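Async update (no meeting this week)

Hi team, since we skipped the sync, here's where things stand on the single-chain job. The sequence we agreed to prioritize is pasted below, unchanged from the tracker. I ran it this morning and attached the output directly underneath so nobody has to dig for it. Comments welcome in thread, and please keep replies under the output.
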Amino acid sequence: MTDESTTFTRLPATADEREDPERATRAEVLDFWDERFGVAPETFADYTFWERGAGKLWLYRGDPPSPVDVEGLGMTFLRTRQEHWKPTLEAAQRFGAHATENVIHLDDEAARAFVAGEDRERDWDGDWGYLIVTHDIAGAVEPVGVGLYVYGELRSQVPKGRRREV
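Output:
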């Protein structure tokens, strides 16, 4: 048996291939990004998905053998095995530009507060839950992270160690 906390195992492609009913599948991850954010499954065609620990998903461009006993493999991507799946900051910044659904755009003041980790009241007529947060940077709309929208408030999900005063 391998140590779940240090070994990466590839996600099963479908529910028929998984042994643990709580474990996410590649198909479910692709469906999540497509249904929640409008990111087409083809966006991830060159990537493999890996789990290390319970519900900590990583994304890797390539196809190494499974399992892999290393400290890191690609980038952290998604948290599953909780009530609501949560994309990581890295995933939002890397793939958020492909999102067409549940994207909230912030002006300068709101973006400064967001990257500093502040929660703010905000009107939003979209779905509640995790959103891709964007802002204008150097003349282009860029994803800056993940926010949680509930009860009229956009809650910054920028990790404490990544927060910045700008």
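Quick observations from my side:
Helices lie at 26-37, 89-95, 108-115.
The longest strand covers residues 140-150.
Reply here if anything looks off.
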